[in-house]
C-alpha cells in the first residue's frame, strides 16, 4: 500500500469517526458553541450563525405535551427500571380493580378468572427462595425508608448494597431484616443524610446492637469506605425539631467547626456532639432549651450532653 493510499484510508476513517461522534466544532469559525434547534432540526453555531447541520433526526416522541399531565397521558412507555424491586420493575402487574379498559365492571365469570390470574402472577414473580428473600428484604427497606422519611435515592443505594451482599453470600447465618437495616443505614451515610442507629432501630424489627454488628461486617466485606459522620449534618434537623432559629443553627455549626479543629471530635458520637453544640448555641443566643429537650430530640442521654458541652465551652474559651 502506497503512502497516498494509506493517507486516504486514514482520512476516510477520521471522517467516519467524526460522523459517528457528531460535529463538535463549527467548520467556519472553529467555535464549539453549537446550539441545537429542535423545531427546525438544525445545529447552529451561536458565534457566527452558520447552520452546521440540518434535517437532523429527532429521537424523541412524535407527540407534543405542554404539561406533566399531558405527558403522562400520551406516554406509551412504562416506568424506568428500579433496584428497589426484586425484578427491577420489569414484570407485569395485574390491577386489583375488577374493571375493563373503559372503566366498566366485568362479569362474575371474568372476575373469578382475573382473581386466579392475579394469584398465579404473584406466585410466579419469584421463581426461587433467593428471589423471595430479595423481595422480602427490599420491601423491608422500602417500609423503613418511608418511616424515616428519606428520599428515593437512599432507597436505591440501599437496594444496591443489599443485592451486593446477597451476591457475595453475606446473608448466610444472619437475619434478612438485620442485613436490610444495615444496608439502609449504610445508604443514609453514603448519601449524606445520616440517621443515628437509635433512629434506625426504632423503625426496624432488629436490635441496635445487631444492626451495628451487621453494618460493620457488611461495610468491611463490601469495602464501602465510609467516612465518619459530620455532626453538622444533624444540626438542621435537630434545630428544626426544637424550633430554634437560623442564628442558633449557625452558631452551633461554628462551635462544631472550632472545637473539631482542637481535636475534640475524635472518638465521640456525632449525634451527642451535635446536640451539645446546639444546647450551647441556644444558651448563647438566648433561646434556652433544657438538656432534657435536646437529649430527647437527639436520642442521647443528658450526661452525654453535659460532658460534651463542658468540653466545647472550655475549648471555645467561654465560661458559663
Fold blueprint:
Elements (H helix, E strand, L loop, with lengths): L2 H19 L12 E4 L4 E4 L5 E3 L14 H7 L33 H17 L4 H20 L3 H16 L8 H15 L6 H7 L4 H15 L12 H8 L3 H16 L8 H15 L6 H8 L3 H15 L4
Helix pairs in contact: 4-5, 4-6, 5-6, 6-8, 10-11, 11-12, 11-13
Describe what this molecule looks like in 3D.
With 320 residues, the protein is mainly α. Among the domains are: 129-222, Cyclin-like (Cyclin A, domain 1); 231-316, Cyclin-like (Cyclin A, domain 1), CATH 1.10.472. It has 13 helices and three strands. The chain has helices at 3-21, 68-74, 108-124, 129-148, 152-167, 176-190, 197-203, 208-222, 235-242, 246-261, 270-284, 291-298, 302-316, and strands spanning 34-37, 42-45, 51-53. The protein has a three-stranded antiparallel sheet, with no helix packed on it. A hairpin with a 4-residue loop joins strand 1 (34-37) and strand 2. The radius of gyration is 29 Å and the shape is extended.
Computed structural class: mainly alpha
Helix content: 55-70%
The CATH class designation of the domain at 129-222 is Mainly Alpha
CATH second-level architecture of the domain at 129-222 = Orthogonal Bundle
Count all strands and give the number: 3
Under CATH, the topology of the domain at 129-222 can be stated as Cyclin A, domain 1
Strand content: under 5%
Indicate the radius of gyration in whole angstroms.
29 Å
Mean pLDDT: 83
- DSSP helix count? 13
Contiguous low-pLDDT stretches (5 residues minimum) are: 10-21
Spatial arrangement of strands, main beta sheet = 1-2-3
List SSEs in N-to-C order: HEEEHHHHHHHHHHHH
What's the main sheet like? 3 strands, antiparallel
Find the CATH superfamily of the domain at 129-222: Cyclin-like
Report the span from N to C terminus: 89 Å
Sum up the overall morphology in one term. extended
